[in-house]
Amino acid sequence: MILCPNCYAEITDATTHFCMNCKKALPLIKGCKKCHKDISFNFNYCPHCGANNQDILPPEKLEELNRIASEANKVSSEFTDPRDGRTYKTVIIGNQEWMAENLAFVVEGANPYNNSSEKATTYGLLYTWEQAKLAVPEGFRLPTREDFVELENFCQKSTGLQAGTALKSNTEHWCETGMLGTRIPGQDSFGFKALPAGSQSSLKVFNYLNNYAYFWTDEEKDQEKAYFRHLSYYNETFAELSSNKNCKFSVRAIKIK
Question: What range defines the domain where residue 141 resides?
């Protein structure tokens, strides 16, 4: 019998993996039907014995994932913004080419976290929705909701990971623990290197550096709100949400084909 590691309900997923160290089940389904908690299919460590997940996945699966990441994780070029001379790395993921860094072009009203130039070097700037549309350089654009859906689907289909885990940087920038749980490390499967730059609220309060990444889309929900994508230190999702247009988030531009 295979049991949920959260509530010990029986699991009938035939694709469940077993830790090669302690031989206990690591289910691949997303969510236990009894306790409704997420069950990760990207255990970085076996929840029973602490073995690294490289001992959990079959060797042939590891080889396949490493090959996919190796082929996909290619910085296609470097783009130099002629407006300020700043150079950004870009990366091809599927049929899309994305900036592999947060935008940092200065437009009126945009600012780094805590107005710190040091933070700007690492995390780029934070923009309102209107500022974000002005900041994107020629040849690139603010992503649509559909762009992010395509990115999310490609990540999941090509790696078997949730998109949040595939896109988050595997660096020390993400916090280890917080009020909502323990960090689930990113794998940075494609070189997207999503960083937790935090946000600035519409009331000018800075929040969540090292906890969350927020990326604007180009689409508004209504007169007050626009859509964005969200990554968290404690889960694997790449969620679509909406927020007041006067909040300030990061920008990841996508290249115009």
Answer: 72-255
